[in-house]
Specification:
Length: 487
């Protein structure tokens, strides 16, 4: 079956629907949902139910669009107060770590045919290109898994992983594009040229991302649109503008949108709740579409020939190159050994390596299809083994903690500029010892009880309300009062 204008909407909707239903089953059994989206695309593809999709350029376009929004959304959800203590080590992992992983893995690929019975036959630049495409941890996979596993992590591991995964895709992208250009131009392997490209793209991308983020915050807070629903749409269009404009100026668009999201997420924004809800929905949709597209693009029958090579490289990255890069990068920092081991195991590969692997194919490089198939198998291997063992690994290493509670049981949020905060308290027998009416309870000055939750019922209270043990009170407190009462 081929794609036509008449069936593309129906088939697309069916694929998304099936993916969402399957993801519910996968979540129950601890299987990464993004892996299931990928398998769904393969199931419906040319070697499955017969949907033919072999356009690498279209897949790359969908991937670029999706990754831009995913990175911006990930940056927006990352609080600077959380990443500030781990900023240095996170940036070292996302830059030097990617380069070390590329070099170590690239050398293995180059010499693998001499050390074993595997016949690869790639040149050194092609070996480095293959390594570069899989050198970064995938932001979509990491963000998704950390938010869905329902566990907390000690030693600031969660912000470290989010910072690394959000900021190391640009480094892998620069390496991939630079190596593709060198191979196409037959210019050989120039370290100085590669270094200049890396510094230039990252500097331009980071600067434009920061300035664009500030500009976006100012526009959102001052534009005064007639409908609140337009603010998230404005945000989405701005992401694409930032990515494209940065790319036109020879900067790294992926870094720009991530930094812009980080800036926007750490400033006061009008209609933040509406924007966040919209962005979460769009991010999920784009993740599904991206993984489905890449699954459709793959031909499992072509991967049989590269299976042994891909598994060997994938296991080497999991057990040697990624851990070695992590331990070397974190030498200057006081990070416990168990935390380093967990960071090493969290080197998840996902959609990003597959998207990057389309660049050599589109450029017409010899052995590009071999490279694409190897990268695809490595991604499946990483998501299948590492993605399904994250929680078990964290608990085995003694790094798992209770997930911090998000929001409140009442589903109520306050505008950022109100100068107040919401708190919850569950009543005990001691709280009711002086009387069981609301008026009998003593609260600090500036504190007001807004609602009371009893079982599944919500009560708007007054002073005569009779309270019971187990009632949950939602209070609003002025920030000034909170700071005054705090010890």
């Amino acid at each position: 079956m081929t794609f036509t204008p008449e069936n593309i909407f129906f088939l697309g909707a069916v694929l998304i629907f099936v993916s969402i239903v399957i993801s519910k089953w996968g979540y129950r059994f601890g299987v990464p949902t993004l892996l299931l989206f990928l398998f769904t695309g393969m199931l419906f593809g040319s070697d499955g139910l017969g949907l033919e999709f072999n356009n690498h350029a279209d897949a790359q376009l969908i991937g670029m669009l999706s990754l831009s929004v995913i990175l911006f959304s990930g940056g927006m959800d990352t609080k600077f107060r959380d990443i500030r203590p781990v900023l240095a080590q996170g940036l070292v992992l996302s830059t030097l770590g990617v380069m070390l992983t590329t070099v170590i893995t690239g050398l293995l690929i180059y010499y693998l045919s001499e050390w074993t019975q595997l016949e690869i036959g790639l040149t050194l630049p092609m070996s480095m290109l293959l390594a570069a495409t899989v050198s970064s941890t995938d932001s979509a996979s990491v963000f998704n898994l950390l938010r869905s596993q329902g566990i907390g992590l000690k030693h600031n591991l969660r912000p470290t992983l989010e910072l690394e995964s959000g900021s190391n895709d640009p480094m892998a992208y620069v390496l991939t594009i630079a190596l593709v250009e060198m191979i196409v131009s037959e210019g050989g392997f120039s370290g100085m040229e590669l270094a200049s490209k890396i510094v230039g793209q990252l500097a331009v991308g980071g600067l434009l991302g920061y300035l664009s983020g500030l500009a976006l915050v100012w526009i959102v807070n001052h534009i005064n649109l007639p409908n609140a629903s337009l603010y998230p749409v404005l945000m989405l269009s701005s992401i694409l503008i930032i990515f494209t404009f940065t790319d036109l100026l020879q900067g790294n668009g992926y870094l720009a949108v991530y930094v812009a999201g980080l800036v926007a997420g750490n400033h006061k924004l009008s209609y933040r709740r509406e924007t966040t809800t919209f962005m979460q929905g769009v991010t999920w949709l784009l993740q599904i579409v991206m993984f489905l597209t890449l699954g459709l693009l793959a031909d499992p029958s072509d991967m049989v020939d590269v299976l042994a090579v891909a598994v060997a490289i994938g296991l080497f990255m999991m057990l040697v190159s990624r851990p070695l890069a992590v331990f070397l990068c974190l030498i200057p920092f006081r990070v416990p050994v168990k935390a380093k081991v967990f960071l090493s195991w969290m080197g998840l590969r996902g959609a990003v390596p597959i998207i990057f692997a389309t660049y050599p194919v589109i450029a017409g490089i010899e052995d590009a299809n071999f490279l694409f198939n190897v990268v695809f198998v490595i991604t499946l291997l990483s998501l299948s083994i590492q993605g399904t063992t994250i929680t078990a690994c964290a608990r085995w290493l003694g790094l798992a903690t209770a997930e911090p509670k998000q929001g409140n049981e009442f589903g109520v949020e306050l505008p950022e500029d109100l100068g107040s905060r919401l708190s919850e308290m569950t009543l005990t027998e001691e709280d009711l010892a002086q009387g069981n009416r609301l008026a009998d309870l003593h609260f600090p000055a500036g504190t007001l009880v807004m609602m009371v939750k009893r079982g599944h019922s919500i009560i708007v209270p007054n002073g005569k309300l009779e309270l019971r043990k187990g009632d949950v009170l939602l209070t609003i407190e002025q920030e000034e009062a909170v700071s005054t009462e705090s010890p």
